[in-house]
Amino acid sequence: MNLPTTSHSNNHYPNLQKLGSASLYLDEILEIEHVKLFEDFSKDEIEALCRYMTCYASPTGYRLLKEGDEGDFMLLILTGKVTVFKQNEAGEGRHLSVAMPGMSLGEMTLIDGSPRSASCDSMTPTDFAVLDRTALNAILVKMPRLANKLLLVLLQFMTRRLRDTSSLLIPKEMALLV
Description:
Elements: E1 17-21, H1 26-31, H2 43-50, E2 54-58, E3 63-65, E4 73-79, E5 82-87, E6 93-99, E7 104-105, H3 107-112, E8 119-122, E9 126-132, H4 133-142, H5 144-169, H6 172-177
Antiparallel strand pairs: 1-2, 2-9, 3-8, 4-7, 4-9, 5-6, 5-8
Helix pairs in contact: 4-5
């Protein structure tokens, strides 16, 4: 499917090297193992989504997302490693996880526009793709079935993370009562 590249994304990272449309990196994206975001999508559907994503390259130690910041976009990690952490009351970072290629970050802010719930820093040089709300809205208008499928996947991601977080916060005995 050779469709024109569509760029709806704002320049969310003016200090980073902009690599261009994710459609230019389709083959590399398809080669990443375990891209959970795209597991249930066909190659044509992935190609269509990539036309609405913009790729960037960040150096080691770059703050990709900052806890508390407003935002309207999510990231798909293509190469490198990203540490995810939250600030505690003392202002110290508490490590939550490491995002590897194929993982996505920032889905909640893409959907609800609330401030970021965690910060993310590149641990190595990292390439990533950005999907913002403007692009998501364009997909909703032009390809509603694909957009609905994407939104369902994002909703599943968020509920899974909520369940995982809840299981860490609520003792198992209490969870049986809920």
